[in-house]
Automatic annotation (TrEMBL):
<keyword id="KW-0677">Repeat</keyword>
<dbReference type="InterPro" id="IPR004017">
    <property type="entry name" value="Cys_rich_dom"/>
</dbReference>
<dbReference type="InterPro" id="IPR017896">
    <property type="entry name" value="4Fe4S_Fe-S-bd"/>
</dbReference>
<dbReference type="Pfam" id="PF02754">
    <property type="entry name" value="CCG"/>
</dbReference>
<keyword id="KW-0249">Electron transport</keyword>
<feature type="domain" description="4Fe-4S ferredoxin-type">
    <location>
        <begin position="50"/>
        <end position="73"/>
    </location>
</feature>
<comment type="function">
    <text>Component of a complex that catalyzes the oxidation of glycolate to glyoxylate.</text>
</comment>
<dbReference type="Pfam" id="PF13183">
    <property type="entry name" value="Fer4_8"/>
</dbReference>
<keyword id="KW-0813">Transport</keyword>
<keyword id="KW-0408">Iron</keyword>
<dbReference type="InterPro" id="IPR012257">
    <property type="entry name" value="Glc_ox_4Fe-4S"/>
</dbReference>
<dbReference type="InterPro" id="IPR017900">
    <property type="entry name" value="4Fe4S_Fe_S_CS"/>
</dbReference>
<dbReference type="InterPro" id="IPR009051">
    <property type="entry name" value="Helical_ferredxn"/>
</dbReference>
<keyword id="KW-0479">Metal-binding</keyword>
<protein>
    <recommendedName>
        <fullName>Glycolate oxidase iron-sulfur subunit</fullName>
        <ecNumber>1.1.99.14</ecNumber>
    </recommendedName>
</protein>
<keyword id="KW-0004">4Fe-4S</keyword>
<feature type="domain" description="4Fe-4S ferredoxin-type">
    <location>
        <begin position="1"/>
        <end position="29"/>
    </location>
</feature>
Length: 400
């Protein structure tokens, strides 16, 4: 924990109404200001107690407080450093430790996730039974999405028409294995807008899930592998279609202590900067766009996805109430903190349902699974898609 960063907080309270856990419980120690107070106590010599660790674990790391803070407090950096300290010094109960080992031995590894694909249809039915074994296992099963057939991307997707740019593309772990159609749509959109798309071998999880959970060494190991893959490909720009991944990769220099050698951009950020050339066909849809926290708060990318969606003829974009409040996904939060995540998911589902939209658009796989699951619980199922899928349908003139 960094005393200088802690000292930047003037305890003004502007963060309180933006914090999801403070909104749920109204407890000072479950607000950013309260957690910073606990960090200060630890710096001054108080050991990490189970109660203290519980308050830190309850933080989603959504970074809404960073957006709201008038003093520029680096709460994002503070909570990451704090979680490293918690993982280093706090001894968890055996059942909790076992669940965390399952999660972090599985999700950052695409080949292991691939083994789950044939059983995904059974996950929802098993959720009540698994919840009795452990709430986190039940939550994991309930979130499981229906998975399409695996789509293998070639190592190079050629630009259509004149080449305007050459980019690398992150395929990721959860995105690549549970939402392969999103990666395929991303590559097509980039190609249709005049980009050669390189999909390097050897990439996998970028390390984001581990960073957010304080597993620093695992995060660095995964990040170094990702950097090697894109350096070998020789790309100057890497395009990312998952908000949490993009947020972490933009901080690689801080994580690894060295410049990775390439620029990282979210898909919508890159396309907005590149400018459209391909023709958009009409999509007569009402769409609710969900701001993923690690896109809106951590990366500051809000206008670009809306700009791209509004550029599609006949598409009506509707805003979601309380858009700045996290849906409860937050990396592995909806697995490790299932009760709080469920409450936030239900709150977000109500907000999405109030728009009356036909389609929910999100730029993060965790958010997509979280909100879809909450909508099912509420009996208000809604079609979900990634921004890339909507653009792909419009560019190719096909229905979504």
């Amino acid at each position: 924990m960094d005393p200088e960063l802690i000292g930047d907080c003037v305890h003004c309270g502007f963060c309180l109404p933006t914090c999801p856990t403070y909104a749920l419980w109204g407890e000072e120690m479950d607000s950013p200001r309260g957690r910073i107070h606990l960090m200060q106590q630890h710096v001054e010599g108080t050991p990490v107690t189970p109660e203290m660790a519980g308050h830190f674990d309850a933080c989603l790391g959504c970074m809404a407080c960073v957006t709201a803070c008038p003093s520029g407090v680096r709460y994002d950096r503070l909570i990451e450093l704090t979680r490293v300290e918690v993982e280093r010094t706090h001894v968890r109960e055996p059942r909790e430790r076992a669940v965390r080992e399952i999660v972090f031995s599985l999700f950052p590894y695409p080949r292991r996730l691939r083994l789950l694909r044939p059983t995904m249809w059974l996950a929802g039915r098993m959720a009540p039974f698994l919840a009795r074994v452990h709430p986190s296992l039940g939550a994991m099963a309930a979130l499981a999405p229906p998975v399409e057939h695996r789509q293998r991307l070639p190592r190079l997707v050629r630009a259509r028409g004149g080449r305007r740019a050459v980019v690398g593309m992150l395929t990721g772990c959860v995105q690549g294995e549970f939402f392969p159609q999103v990666n395929a749509a991303t590559a097509r959109v980039l190609a249709l807008e005049g980009c050669d798309v390189l999909v390097p071998a050897g990439q996998g999880c970028c390390g984001a899930l581990s960073v957010h959970a304080g597993r620093a060494e695992q995060a660095r190991r995964l990040a170094r592998r990702t950097v090697r893959a894109f350096r070998r490909a020789g790309v100057e720009t890497v395009v990312v279609n998952a908000a949490g991944c993009g947020s972490t990769m933009k901080e690689y220099a801080e994580l690894l202590g060295a410049d990775p050698g390439f620029k990282v951009m979210d898909l919508s950020e890159f396309l907005a900067e590149l400018g459209p050339v391909a023709r958009r066909h009409p999509l007569p849809l009402t769409v609710a766009y969900h701001d993923a926290c690690h896109l809106a708060h951590a990366q500051g990318v809000r206008a670009q996805p809306r700009e791209l969606l509004r550029g599609i003829p006949e598409l009506e974009l509707r805003e979601i109430p309380e858009s700045a409040i996290c849906c409860g996904s937050a990396g592995t939060y909806n697995i490790l903190q299932p009760e709080a995540a469920r409450d936030l998911g239900d709150r977000k589902a109500g907000a999405v349902g109030s728009t009356g939209a036909e389609l929910l658009v999100s730029a993060n796989p965790g958010c997509t699974m979280q909100i879809a699951s909450a909508m099912r619980r509420a009996g208000k199922e809604i079609r979900v898609a990634h921004t890339a899928e909507v653009l792909d349908a419009s560019l190719r003139g096909v229905s979504l």
